[in-house]
Specification:
211 residues; alpha+beta; NADH Oxidase; 4-stranded antiparallel beta sheet; 4 strands; 46% helix; 14% strand; globular
Length: 211
Amino acid sequence: MHLLEALNWRYAVKQFSNHTLEETRLHTLLEATRLSPSAYGLQPYKLLLVEDQALRAELVTHSYDQQKVLHSSHLLVFAACRDIGSEFIREHMTRLHAARQLDEAAHQGMQQHYQLVLVDQPNTEQRQQWIRDQTFLALGNLLTSAALLQIDTCPMTGIIPEQYDRLLELEPHGLTTLATVTLGFRHPHDDYASQPKVRLGMEELVMRVPA
């Protein structure tokens, strides 16, 4: 499926079929998400693949009774770091050095820069917004990748994050729920599949500067 065809095909599925997404295609989608763009390559988030059906059933209650949380092939939770600190930067630099064999000067320079702009800057709210932005970049990439793989999805922020955090025991890991995505295949009786996509026209959306 070509890119624009895939993006026209995708929609936020309201009702999933009982078909299970095969492991190989799921792995491809997760790998595509792992390769998402992220500032400095830091990826301040985790992907939680919730496989316990009883747990998924509990999460329905904290998803405003959206049954697709349970009745879909897979449930994926995007959990953002609550904050990042010096240890987070050091761990990234270890991975970076192993992959690129940085010389000492480059290693120290990059680590000091990341520390300065991300950890030492005093605006915690601004840093947390940066973390959320990076997480949503990955979410957007997952949705496009899923469409190209003909995997149906429904991204959701209509959930109660605090209850997700509690049930998934995220606080000890320094994580908090940001969004969820249900994965699988659309039900043949999901009427939303046949509804036309409503978006701004190109001339309304794109502003050429200077005009």
